[in-house]
Amino acid sequence: MRKHLLFIILSLLFCTPLSAQILLSDSAKLYLLTCTPGTEVWSKYGHTGIRVCDEANKMDIVFNYGIFSLMEDGFYLKFIKGDTYYQLGIESYSHFVRFYNKIGRKTYLQELNLTPEQKHQVFDALMVNYQPENRFYLYNFVFDNCATRPYYLLKNALQDTIISSYQGYANQPFRSTITHYTGPYSWVDFGINLVFGSKADQPMTNEQRLFLPEELMFYLSEAHLSDGTPLVIHENIAPFEIAPVPWYADCRFGIALFALLMVLISWWDRKRNKLSWWLDAILGLVYLVLLAIVIFLTFFSVHPLVGFSWRLLILPLIHLCARLIYWLR
C-alpha cells in the first residue's frame, strides 16, 4: 500500500486547513482513487484514496489513509511486531496525481453515485476521522489498511448494504492472492511465505479480500445498494499490470544455485578429506536467525497470518542432503 517518505508527509503542511463545518455543495463529487503497483516491496499491492471535488468551495483534495513516517523511533521493530500506527492525511488532488505520475504509477478514478445527503455523510465521516484524536490507527496489512478503511467508512456512512456481483478472489486463500502481486517465485514472495503460517491458507471472506486495492476497485465497479442503485456512475479503470519475475530473480534459480554450490563444496571436501566447518557454522547461524524471527513473529507479533511454515526447512534440507556426500563415505 502507499507509504510516503518524510518529504511527502511534510508537504501536507502546505495543504489548506479544513474545517469540520464545511458544507459540500450539491454539485460536489466524490471519487474512489486506485493507484497501480510500484516497484518497492510495500507498493506492489497498489493504493487507495478518496477524492472530494467541490468547485463551489474551491476544494479538490484526497483523503489518504497511508501516511506514516520512517523517521519514527523504532519504526522497523514496530513494523515487524505489527505495532505501527498510520494516519489519515489530506493533500491536494493535483499533488497526489503528480506524485504517482512521477514514479510511473497510474491513478484510476471511480465517481461514486451518491445523493447530496450521502455525500455529506461520507464527507462528515472523513472529517471526523481526520480529527487529531482519530486520524491515527493501528495498521494491519490484511485487516485494516488504506483500502479497508475507505470501504468500511463508505459502508457505515451510507448505512446500507453494498452488494457486488464481482467474484475476483472471493473464497481464495490469502497466500495465493498476495503471491499474485509480489510475483510467483520471487524472492519477496519466498520471504513472505517463510513467515506466513497455516492461517494464510484459509479462504478469504467476501469482504476480507477488499484489503487489496484492485479488488476493491472492481468490487465497487459492479456494486449497487440495496435498492439497486449502482454505486459507481462513471469510471476509468483497468486491471493492474503485474511485472513478470525475471529468470535471474526467480527464487527457484537461486535455490538451485545454492544446491549446486553445496554439492560442489561437499564433493571438494570429500576429495580433500577436510570439512569446511566454517560454512556449516555460518549457514547454521542463518537458519537459527530465521527460526528466531518466525518464533518471535508467532508469539509476540500481532500480524494475523504469521506462523511456522514448512518452507523454512527448504534451505536446511538442501544443505543436509548435500553434506551427505561428505559424510557417507
How does this structure look, described?
By secondary structure, the chain is an alpha+beta fold. It has helices spanning 6-11, 75-81, 93-102, 116-130, 148-158, 174-182, 187-195, 213-221, 251-272, 277-300, 314-327; strands at 29-35, 47-54, 59-67, 85-92, 107-112, 136-138, 163-164, 223-224, 232-236. The strands form two sheets. A seven-stranded antiparallel beta sheet has the order 6-4-3-2-1-5-9. Helix 4 (116-130) packs across helix 5 (148-158) and helix 9 runs parallel beside helix 11. The protein starts with 5 loop residues before the first helix and ends with a helix.
Summarize the structure.
This protein has about 325 residues and is of the alpha+beta class. It is built from eleven helices and nine strands. The strands form two sheets. The chain has a seven-stranded antiparallel β-sheet with strand order 6-4-3-2-1-5-9. Strands 7-8 form a two-stranded antiparallel ribbon.
